[in-house]
């Protein structure tokens, strides 16, 4: 992996996230309409497209030979060891109804391994940056996973794919977690939950088949902040997976949350 490319990519991603973030902040609260996308309740707005254009143009201007997969644009069909994953407005539903909970997510992978992540929260002006082996930063300050004292009930983020919202197995597990934790959080903006976990404001995240352009930035954030990301059987998560079922938490708590998931799926 070329470190010079990675360093340049970090600068490009940060600049793109800031510019797209300024746009979303300026446009917040001004929407006249939005469009339904797909059959599962997802939506898209003009701001998604505008923010995406900003990000893609910046990436293309510096890395014209890199692969790109973006939420609205799709893929550019190039062949490259480098792949950019872009969600220009994670939390579009929140944005559309006037909830100031949304972010910009940019990830770069090398040979299908995520190596750089940038998440920007425009309404709080918090920029998260994580690179392989270099830790996670929030506004240039290092952040780390927190080891909670023994908890009777935990604060857990739940992230679920649109296509499996009503799958009985998902409903059963979601209900079990809801009644057996202190809080089960669903923000409609997964990247914000990943940043909360990375900085220690959540105890865990449980992912139920929610693969998307925004997933891998959060995983890099948590891993570089000292967390673990495993599947439901405890195997370390590596690379990419089209149907991820994951647990992310502090290393000392993985047995606790694995048991929570197993109990929830067996009820």
Describe the structure.
About 35% of the residues lie in helices and about 30% in strands. The protein has seven helices and 15 strands. The strands form three sheets. It has an eight-stranded mixed β-sheet with strand order 4-3-5-6-7-8-9-10, sandwiched between helices. Helix 4 (about 170-180) packs across helix 7. The model has no long low-confidence stretch (mean pLDDT about 90).
Binned strand content = 25-35%
Q: Largest beta sheet: what is the strand line-up?
A: 4-3-5-6-7-8-9-10
Shape: globular
Poorly predicted regions: none
Number of helices: 7
Structural class: alpha+beta
Radius of gyration of CA atoms, rounded to a whole number: 18 Å
**H-E order:** HEEHEEEHEEEEEEHEHEHEEH
Major β-sheet annotation: 8 strands, mixed
Can you count the beta strands? 15
Give the mean pLDDT: 92
Approximate helicity band: 25-40%
């Amino acid at each position: 992996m070329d470190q010079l490319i990675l360093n340049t990519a970090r600068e490009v991603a940060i600049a793109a996230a800031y510019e797209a973030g300024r746009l979303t902040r300026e446009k917040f609260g001004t929407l006249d309409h939005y469009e339904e996308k797909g059959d599962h309740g997802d939506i898209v707005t003009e701001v998604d497209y505008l923010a995406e254009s900003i990000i893609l143009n910046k990436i293309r201007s510096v890395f014209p030979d890199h692969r790109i997969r973006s939420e609205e644009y799709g893929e550019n069909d190039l062949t490259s060891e480098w792949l950019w994953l872009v969600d220009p407005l994670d939390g579009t539903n929140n944005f559309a109804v006037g909830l100031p909970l949304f972010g910009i997510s940019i990830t770069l992978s090398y040979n299908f391994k995520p190596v750089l992540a940038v998440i920007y929260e425009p309404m709080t002006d918090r920029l998260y940056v994580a690179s392989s082996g270099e830790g996670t930063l929030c506004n240039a300050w290092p952040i780390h996973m927190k080891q909670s004292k023994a908890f009777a009930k935990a604060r857990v983020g739940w992230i679920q794919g649109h296509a499996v919202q009503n799958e009985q197995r998902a409903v059963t597990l979601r209900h079990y977690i809801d009644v057996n934790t202190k809080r089960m959080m669903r923000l409609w903006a997964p990247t914000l939950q990943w940043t909360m976990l990375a900085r220690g404001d959540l105890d865990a995240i449980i992912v139920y088949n929610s693969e998307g352009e925004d997933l891998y930035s959060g995983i890099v954030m948590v891993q570089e902040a000292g967390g673990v990301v495993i599947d439901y059987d405890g195997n370390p998560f590596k690379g990419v997976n089209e149907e991820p079922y994951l647990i992310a938490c502090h290393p000392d708590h993985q047995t606790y949350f694995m048991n929570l998931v197993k109990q929830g799926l067996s009820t």
